[in-house]
Design a protein that fits this description.
Elements (H helix, E strand, L loop, with lengths): L8 E3 L5 E5 L5 E3 L5 E5 L4 E4 L5 E2 L4 E5 L3 E2 L4 E3 L4 E12 L3 E8 L2 E7 L10 E11 L4 E9 L5 E3 L7 E6 L2
Antiparallel strand pairs: 1-2, 2-3, 4-7, 4-16, 5-15, 6-14, 8-9, 9-14, 10-13, 10-15, 10-16, 11-12, 11-14
Length: about 170
């Protein structure tokens, strides 16, 4: 026997909508899923050639409070599946690498090809979907090969950014 439940909205006991189904059948969450978009307000410069550097995002728009602008890291407030996307915009680099870490372990990285001289800018982007437990910590590191000089993580217009969204 098949059961049919006809509702347009599902709410919690406090009356907060968690799920809405519109007239065409599209399911929408209440917009309260943990999510963030983080950028740099200033360049992160004078970084040593061929060393990994935590990217210290200090400007954030978020739902919830999982992203810390003092550390540049996201702490998952609840268990779930998350989508993370990021871009690194590197100056004075002939190669750039961007890596995403979960609890200190590298999960995914993106490497731009080596060019014969420094290119302004050089960069790397990544996106990944990972399962996280509550209190898992997600952060990014940038790396650049400059051929011996220091390099800079550029900031203007959100060019270096990090975003995350709990998808389920």
């Amino acid at each position: 026997m098949t059961s049919i439940i006809k509702v347009d909205q599902i709410q919690n006991a406090a009356g907060v909508s968690g799920l809405t189904i519109d007239s065409s059948g599209i399911v929408k969450t209440g917009g309260n899923n943990p999510q963030f978009f983080a950028t740099l307000s200033v360049a992160q410069g004078n970084l040593v050639d061929q060393t990994n550097n935590d990217i210290l995002f200090d400007t954030v728009s978020q739902v919830g409070s999982g992203f810390s602008t003092s550390t540049g890291k996201f702490t998952c407030p609840v268990s779930g599946v998350y989508l993370f996307c990021a871009n690194l915009y590197a100056y004075f680099a002939r190669q750039a690498e961007l890596a995403l870490f979960k609890n200190g372990t590298k999960i995914v990285r993106s490497v731009a090809p080596v060019v014969t001289s420094d290119v302004n800018p050089n960069g790397a982007s990544l996106s990944t979907i990972i399962t996280c437990a509550a209190n898992d910590v997600i952060h990014l590191q940038g790396f650049a090969d400059t051929g011996g000089s220091n390099w800079t993580i550029y900031h203007a217009n959100g060019s270096t950014h990090f975003s995350g969204y709990m998808i389920g």
